[in-house]
Specification:
The protein has 373 residues and is mainly alpha-helical. Helices cover 71% and strands 4% of the residues.
Length: 373
Protein backbone atom coordinates (compact mmCIF):
# COMPACT_ATOMS: atom_id res chain seq x y z
CA UNK A 1 0.00 0.00 0.00
CA UNK A 2 1.52 3.27 -1.06
CA UNK A 3 1.32 6.06 1.54
CA UNK A 4 -0.75 8.77 -0.08
CA UNK A 5 -3.87 10.47 1.35
CA UNK A 6 -7.40 9.57 0.32
CA UNK A 7 -10.62 11.25 1.31
CA UNK A 8 -13.13 8.43 0.91
CA UNK A 9 -13.19 7.35 4.55
CA UNK A 10 -12.83 10.73 6.15
CA UNK A 11 -15.46 12.34 3.92
CA UNK A 12 -18.19 10.44 5.70
CA UNK A 13 -16.71 11.14 9.14
CA UNK A 14 -17.98 13.65 11.62
CA UNK A 15 -15.77 16.26 13.19
CA UNK A 16 -14.65 15.73 16.74
CA UNK A 17 -14.59 19.48 17.37
CA UNK A 18 -10.95 20.40 17.05
CA UNK A 19 -10.94 20.63 13.27
CA UNK A 20 -8.15 18.12 12.88
CA UNK A 21 -9.57 14.70 13.82
CA UNK A 22 -12.55 12.89 12.37
CA UNK A 23 -14.18 9.82 13.89
CA UNK A 24 -15.75 7.01 11.89
CA UNK A 25 -17.06 4.28 14.15
CA UNK A 26 -14.07 3.16 16.20
CA UNK A 27 -11.63 4.43 13.52
CA UNK A 28 -10.11 7.86 14.01
CA UNK A 29 -8.55 9.65 11.03
CA UNK A 30 -6.86 12.93 10.38
CA UNK A 31 -8.77 15.49 8.38
CA UNK A 32 -7.82 15.12 4.71
CA UNK A 33 -7.29 18.82 4.06
CA UNK A 34 -3.49 18.64 3.83
CA UNK A 35 -2.29 16.09 1.23
CA UNK A 36 0.71 15.22 3.39
CA UNK A 37 -1.17 14.61 6.63
CA UNK A 38 -2.07 10.95 6.34
CA UNK A 39 -0.21 7.91 4.96
CA UNK A 40 -3.13 5.46 5.11
CA UNK A 41 -5.57 4.73 2.27
CA UNK A 42 -8.35 4.18 4.83
CA UNK A 43 -9.08 4.99 8.45
CA UNK A 44 -7.15 2.30 10.39
CA UNK A 45 -9.05 0.84 13.31
CA UNK A 46 -7.38 1.37 16.66
CA UNK A 47 -9.52 -1.36 18.29
CA UNK A 48 -8.67 -3.91 15.58
CA UNK A 49 -4.99 -3.10 15.90
CA UNK A 50 -5.19 -3.63 19.68
CA UNK A 51 -7.05 -6.96 19.30
CA UNK A 52 -4.60 -8.39 16.78
CA UNK A 53 -1.64 -7.10 18.78
CA UNK A 54 -2.92 -8.97 21.83
CA UNK A 55 -3.63 -12.09 19.75
CA UNK A 56 -0.13 -12.25 18.27
CA UNK A 57 1.52 -11.48 21.60
CA UNK A 58 -0.41 -14.41 23.11
CA UNK A 59 0.75 -16.62 20.21
CA UNK A 60 4.33 -15.49 20.86
CA UNK A 61 4.16 -16.30 24.57
CA UNK A 62 2.42 -19.63 24.09
CA UNK A 63 4.76 -20.84 21.35
CA UNK A 64 7.76 -19.81 23.44
CA UNK A 65 6.35 -21.81 26.35
CA UNK A 66 5.79 -24.86 24.13
CA UNK A 67 9.35 -24.67 22.82
CA UNK A 68 10.68 -24.66 26.38
CA UNK A 69 8.41 -27.47 27.53
CA UNK A 70 9.23 -29.78 24.63
CA UNK A 71 12.86 -28.62 24.29
CA UNK A 72 12.73 -28.07 20.56
CA UNK A 73 15.35 -25.46 19.61
CA UNK A 74 14.15 -25.20 16.00
CA UNK A 75 10.91 -23.65 17.30
CA UNK A 76 12.76 -20.34 17.52
CA UNK A 77 11.85 -19.85 13.85
CA UNK A 78 8.12 -19.89 14.61
CA UNK A 79 8.72 -17.70 17.67
CA UNK A 80 10.41 -15.14 15.41
CA UNK A 81 7.34 -15.14 13.16
CA UNK A 82 5.12 -14.51 16.19
CA UNK A 83 7.44 -11.75 17.40
CA UNK A 84 7.49 -9.99 14.03
CA UNK A 85 3.71 -10.14 13.72
CA UNK A 86 3.31 -8.85 17.29
CA UNK A 87 5.71 -5.99 16.65
CA UNK A 88 3.99 -5.23 13.36
CA UNK A 89 0.61 -4.76 15.02
CA UNK A 90 2.10 -2.78 17.90
CA UNK A 91 3.48 -0.40 15.28
CA UNK A 92 0.04 -0.44 13.66
CA UNK A 93 -1.48 0.69 16.97
CA UNK A 94 1.03 3.53 17.10
CA UNK A 95 0.38 4.38 13.48
CA UNK A 96 -3.36 4.76 14.09
CA UNK A 97 -2.49 7.47 16.64
CA UNK A 98 0.37 9.01 14.65
CA UNK A 99 -0.90 8.87 11.11
CA UNK A 100 1.62 11.41 9.88
CA UNK A 101 4.51 9.12 10.85
CA UNK A 102 6.03 7.32 7.89
CA UNK A 103 8.30 5.39 10.28
CA UNK A 104 5.42 3.69 12.14
CA UNK A 105 3.57 3.01 8.90
CA UNK A 106 6.61 1.48 7.19
CA UNK A 107 7.54 -0.61 10.24
CA UNK A 108 4.08 -2.14 10.59
CA UNK A 109 3.90 -2.83 6.88
CA UNK A 110 7.30 -4.52 6.59
CA UNK A 111 6.89 -6.66 9.71
CA UNK A 112 3.40 -7.93 8.90
CA UNK A 113 4.34 -8.62 5.26
CA UNK A 114 7.52 -10.57 6.09
CA UNK A 115 6.49 -12.41 9.28
CA UNK A 116 4.81 -15.36 7.47
CA UNK A 117 8.17 -16.30 5.92
CA UNK A 118 9.32 -17.39 9.37
CA UNK A 119 6.21 -19.56 9.65
CA UNK A 120 7.00 -21.16 6.29
CA UNK A 121 10.53 -21.97 7.47
CA UNK A 122 9.08 -23.67 10.56
CA UNK A 123 6.83 -25.87 8.41
CA UNK A 124 9.84 -26.87 6.29
CA UNK A 125 11.79 -27.82 9.40
CA UNK A 126 8.93 -29.89 10.83
CA UNK A 127 8.55 -31.95 7.65
CA UNK A 128 12.32 -32.52 7.44
CA UNK A 129 12.29 -33.96 10.96
CA UNK A 130 9.28 -36.11 10.16
CA UNK A 131 11.17 -37.58 7.20
CA UNK A 132 14.20 -38.20 9.44
CA UNK A 133 12.11 -39.78 12.18
CA UNK A 134 9.52 -41.87 10.36
CA UNK A 135 11.11 -43.10 7.13
CA UNK A 136 13.40 -46.11 7.10
CA UNK A 137 15.97 -44.44 4.83
CA UNK A 138 15.66 -40.85 6.04
CA UNK A 139 14.84 -39.83 2.48
CA UNK A 140 12.00 -38.93 0.15
CA UNK A 141 13.09 -40.10 -3.28
CA UNK A 142 16.58 -38.71 -3.83
CA UNK A 143 16.20 -36.00 -1.16
CA UNK A 144 17.52 -36.70 2.32
CA UNK A 145 15.80 -35.17 5.34
CA UNK A 146 18.57 -32.62 5.84
CA UNK A 147 18.52 -31.65 2.15
CA UNK A 148 14.74 -31.15 2.27
CA UNK A 149 15.02 -28.72 5.17
CA UNK A 150 18.01 -26.92 3.67
CA UNK A 151 16.48 -26.61 0.20
CA UNK A 152 13.21 -25.06 1.35
CA UNK A 153 14.80 -22.83 4.00
CA UNK A 154 17.18 -21.44 1.38
CA UNK A 155 14.19 -20.80 -0.89
CA UNK A 156 12.56 -18.98 2.02
CA UNK A 157 15.66 -16.82 2.46
CA UNK A 158 15.62 -16.01 -1.27
CA UNK A 159 11.94 -15.09 -1.04
CA UNK A 160 12.65 -13.00 2.04
CA UNK A 161 15.37 -11.00 0.29
CA UNK A 162 13.19 -10.36 -2.77
CA UNK A 163 10.23 -9.25 -0.68
CA UNK A 164 12.38 -7.01 1.52
CA UNK A 165 13.80 -5.35 -1.60
CA UNK A 166 10.27 -4.72 -2.88
CA UNK A 167 8.54 -3.84 0.37
CA UNK A 168 11.24 -1.36 1.27
CA UNK A 169 10.20 0.83 -1.66
CA UNK A 170 6.46 0.75 -1.00
CA UNK A 171 6.69 3.64 1.46
CA UNK A 172 8.41 5.91 -1.05
CA UNK A 173 6.73 9.12 -2.14
CA UNK A 174 7.98 8.53 -5.69
CA UNK A 175 5.21 6.86 -7.71
CA UNK A 176 7.57 5.07 -10.10
CA UNK A 177 9.62 3.75 -7.21
CA UNK A 178 6.49 2.48 -5.49
CA UNK A 179 5.43 0.75 -8.71
CA UNK A 180 8.83 -0.92 -9.00
CA UNK A 181 8.63 -1.98 -5.36
CA UNK A 182 5.24 -3.60 -5.95
CA UNK A 183 6.57 -5.48 -8.97
CA UNK A 184 9.56 -6.78 -7.01
CA UNK A 185 7.40 -7.70 -4.02
CA UNK A 186 4.90 -9.55 -6.22
CA UNK A 187 7.76 -11.49 -7.79
CA UNK A 188 8.87 -12.52 -4.31
CA UNK A 189 5.33 -13.56 -3.39
CA UNK A 190 5.12 -15.59 -6.60
CA UNK A 191 8.38 -17.38 -5.73
CA UNK A 192 7.02 -18.04 -2.24
CA UNK A 193 3.80 -19.53 -3.60
CA UNK A 194 5.74 -21.75 -6.03
CA UNK A 195 7.89 -23.21 -3.27
CA UNK A 196 4.85 -23.65 -1.04
CA UNK A 197 3.25 -25.82 -3.73
CA UNK A 198 6.49 -27.79 -4.17
CA UNK A 199 6.61 -28.26 -0.42
CA UNK A 200 3.02 -29.51 -0.42
CA UNK A 201 4.02 -32.05 -3.09
CA UNK A 202 6.92 -33.18 -0.88
CA UNK A 203 4.54 -33.60 2.06
CA UNK A 204 2.23 -35.75 -0.07
CA UNK A 205 5.22 -37.84 -1.22
CA UNK A 206 6.19 -38.33 2.42
CA UNK A 207 2.67 -39.51 3.23
CA UNK A 208 2.76 -42.06 0.41
CA UNK A 209 6.20 -43.28 1.43
CA UNK A 210 5.57 -43.68 5.12
CA UNK A 211 2.11 -45.24 4.65
CA UNK A 212 3.77 -48.28 3.04
CA UNK A 213 5.67 -49.09 6.22
CA UNK A 214 4.37 -52.12 8.17
CA UNK A 215 2.41 -51.27 11.33
CA UNK A 216 2.61 -47.58 10.46
CA UNK A 217 -0.77 -47.10 12.17
CA UNK A 218 0.98 -47.06 15.53
CA UNK A 219 3.02 -43.96 14.59
CA UNK A 220 1.24 -40.64 15.32
CA UNK A 221 2.41 -38.85 12.19
CA UNK A 222 -0.95 -38.06 10.61
CA UNK A 223 -1.93 -35.20 12.92
CA UNK A 224 1.30 -33.35 12.19
CA UNK A 225 0.90 -34.00 8.48
CA UNK A 226 -2.68 -32.74 8.40
CA UNK A 227 -1.65 -29.61 10.30
CA UNK A 228 1.09 -29.01 7.72
CA UNK A 229 -1.47 -29.37 4.92
CA UNK A 230 -3.86 -26.96 6.66
CA UNK A 231 -1.04 -24.50 7.34
CA UNK A 232 0.08 -24.53 3.70
CA UNK A 233 -3.53 -23.93 2.62
CA UNK A 234 -3.94 -20.93 4.94
CA UNK A 235 -0.56 -19.43 4.05
CA UNK A 236 -1.41 -19.91 0.36
CA UNK A 237 -4.72 -18.05 0.85
CA UNK A 238 -2.79 -15.21 2.47
CA UNK A 239 -0.20 -15.23 -0.35
CA UNK A 240 -2.83 -15.18 -3.09
CA UNK A 241 -4.57 -12.30 -1.32
CA UNK A 242 -1.34 -10.30 -1.29
CA UNK A 243 -0.84 -10.98 -4.99
CA UNK A 244 -4.38 -9.83 -5.74
CA UNK A 245 -4.02 -6.76 -3.53
CA UNK A 246 -0.90 -5.49 -5.25
CA UNK A 247 -1.97 -6.43 -8.76
CA UNK A 248 -5.38 -4.71 -8.65
CA UNK A 249 -3.98 -1.21 -8.28
CA UNK A 250 -4.08 1.50 -5.63
CA UNK A 251 -7.81 2.11 -5.86
CA UNK A 252 -8.89 -1.52 -5.51
CA UNK A 253 -11.31 -2.50 -2.75
CA UNK A 254 -8.71 -4.51 -0.83
CA UNK A 255 -6.38 -1.51 -0.71
CA UNK A 256 -8.93 1.12 0.32
CA UNK A 257 -10.62 -1.01 3.02
CA UNK A 258 -9.11 -2.47 6.17
CA UNK A 259 -11.09 -5.63 6.81
CA UNK A 260 -9.69 -7.67 3.86
CA UNK A 261 -6.11 -7.39 5.13
CA UNK A 262 -7.20 -8.43 8.61
CA UNK A 263 -9.33 -11.37 7.47
CA UNK A 264 -7.22 -12.71 4.61
CA UNK A 265 -3.73 -11.79 5.81
CA UNK A 266 -3.46 -11.46 9.58
CA UNK A 267 -6.09 -14.01 10.63
CA UNK A 268 -4.74 -17.00 8.58
CA UNK A 269 -1.23 -16.40 9.88
CA UNK A 270 -2.45 -16.24 13.48
CA UNK A 271 -4.44 -19.48 13.06
CA UNK A 272 -1.35 -21.27 11.74
CA UNK A 273 0.66 -20.06 14.73
CA UNK A 274 -2.00 -21.37 17.09
CA UNK A 275 -2.04 -24.78 15.39
CA UNK A 276 1.40 -25.45 16.85
CA UNK A 277 0.33 -24.37 20.31
CA UNK A 278 -2.53 -26.84 20.31
CA UNK A 279 -0.40 -29.64 18.86
CA UNK A 280 3.32 -28.94 19.11
CA UNK A 281 5.64 -31.21 17.08
CA UNK A 282 7.54 -31.98 20.28
CA UNK A 283 4.62 -34.10 21.45
CA UNK A 284 5.52 -36.84 18.99
CA UNK A 285 8.94 -35.93 17.59
CA UNK A 286 10.98 -37.00 20.57
CA UNK A 287 13.78 -39.43 21.28
CA UNK A 288 16.60 -40.68 19.11
CA UNK A 289 16.40 -39.70 15.46
CA UNK A 290 13.97 -36.82 15.96
CA UNK A 291 16.52 -33.99 15.71
CA UNK A 292 19.46 -32.91 13.59
CA UNK A 293 21.65 -32.79 16.70
CA UNK A 294 25.23 -33.79 17.55
CA UNK A 295 24.28 -37.45 17.72
CA UNK A 296 22.71 -37.26 14.26
CA UNK A 297 25.81 -35.54 12.91
CA UNK A 298 28.03 -38.21 14.45
CA UNK A 299 25.83 -40.97 13.04
CA UNK A 300 25.83 -39.27 9.64
CA UNK A 301 29.61 -39.01 9.71
CA UNK A 302 29.83 -42.68 10.70
CA UNK A 303 27.45 -43.70 7.90
CA UNK A 304 29.49 -41.74 5.36
CA UNK A 305 32.72 -43.35 6.58
CA UNK A 306 31.08 -46.77 6.45
CA UNK A 307 29.79 -46.19 2.94
CA UNK A 308 33.21 -44.95 1.82
CA UNK A 309 34.85 -48.06 3.27
CA UNK A 310 32.23 -50.26 1.63
CA UNK A 311 32.90 -48.69 -1.78
CA UNK A 312 36.64 -49.08 -1.27
CA UNK A 313 36.21 -52.73 -0.35
CA UNK A 314 34.06 -53.30 -3.42
CA UNK A 315 36.72 -51.75 -5.65
CA UNK A 316 39.54 -53.69 -4.03
CA UNK A 317 37.41 -56.80 -3.81
CA UNK A 318 36.73 -56.72 -7.54
CA UNK A 319 40.46 -56.73 -8.27
CA UNK A 320 41.07 -59.40 -5.67
CA UNK A 321 38.34 -61.55 -7.12
CA UNK A 322 39.94 -61.21 -10.55
CA UNK A 323 43.29 -62.30 -9.15
CA UNK A 324 41.73 -65.07 -7.15
CA UNK A 325 39.78 -66.11 -10.22
CA UNK A 326 42.95 -66.28 -12.28
CA UNK A 327 44.70 -68.28 -9.58
CA UNK A 328 41.80 -70.66 -9.22
CA UNK A 329 41.67 -71.08 -12.97
CA UNK A 330 45.38 -71.91 -13.15
CA UNK A 331 45.11 -74.30 -10.26
CA UNK A 332 42.09 -76.01 -11.75
CA UNK A 333 43.85 -76.23 -15.09
CA UNK A 334 46.92 -77.71 -13.43
CA UNK A 335 44.84 -80.16 -11.46
CA UNK A 336 42.93 -81.19 -14.55
CA UNK A 337 46.10 -81.60 -16.53
CA UNK A 338 47.61 -83.60 -13.70
CA UNK A 339 44.56 -85.78 -13.40
CA UNK A 340 44.47 -86.20 -17.16
CA UNK A 341 48.13 -87.25 -17.11
CA UNK A 342 47.42 -89.76 -14.40
CA UNK A 343 44.50 -91.16 -16.31
CA UNK A 344 46.50 -91.27 -19.49
CA UNK A 345 49.39 -92.87 -17.63
CA UNK A 346 47.08 -95.37 -16.08
CA UNK A 347 45.63 -96.13 -19.46
CA UNK A 348 49.11 -96.50 -20.89
CA UNK A 349 50.12 -98.68 -17.97
CA UNK A 350 47.06 -100.80 -18.35
CA UNK A 351 47.83 -101.12 -22.04
CA UNK A 352 51.37 -102.22 -21.48
CA UNK A 353 50.25 -104.69 -18.82
CA UNK A 354 47.58 -106.12 -21.06
CA UNK A 355 50.00 -106.34 -23.96
CA UNK A 356 52.58 -108.09 -21.77
CA UNK A 357 50.02 -110.50 -20.44
CA UNK A 358 48.75 -111.15 -23.95
CA UNK A 359 52.31 -111.72 -25.20
CA UNK A 360 53.08 -114.05 -22.39
CA UNK A 361 49.96 -116.03 -23.06
CA UNK A 362 50.76 -116.12 -26.75
CA UNK A 363 54.26 -117.35 -26.12
CA UNK A 364 52.96 -120.09 -23.85
CA UNK A 365 50.58 -121.27 -26.52
CA UNK A 366 53.12 -121.51 -29.33
CA UNK A 367 54.28 -125.09 -30.19
CA UNK A 368 57.88 -125.80 -29.53
CA UNK A 369 58.46 -126.65 -33.20
CA UNK A 370 57.85 -123.10 -34.11
CA UNK A 371 61.02 -122.04 -32.34
CA UNK A 372 63.06 -124.11 -34.73
CA UNK A 373 63.58 -127.12 -32.51
Amino acid sequence: MSPHPTTSAAAAATSSGDGNWHVLGDATCLAPGDPGQRVWEYCPSFAAAIIFSAAFICAFLLNTTMAIIYRKPFSWVLIMGCAWSSAGFVFRVLSTRHQQSLVYYTAQQLLTILAPLWVNAFLYMVLARMVLFWTTTGKIGIFSASKIGLMFVLSDILTFLIQVAGAGQLSSTNASQVKLGKTIYMAGVGVQLTFLLLFLGMAIAFHRTVSRRPNIQIYPYKTLLYLIHASVLLISIRTIFRLAEFSNGENSYSVTHEWPVLVFDALPVWIVMMFWVVYHPGRVLKGEGSEFNKQWKADKKGRKAEEKMRRKMRREGAGMYDKVGDGIGNRVSGVLEQELGVVQGQERGLGHTAYAEYGQSYEMQRPLASYGA
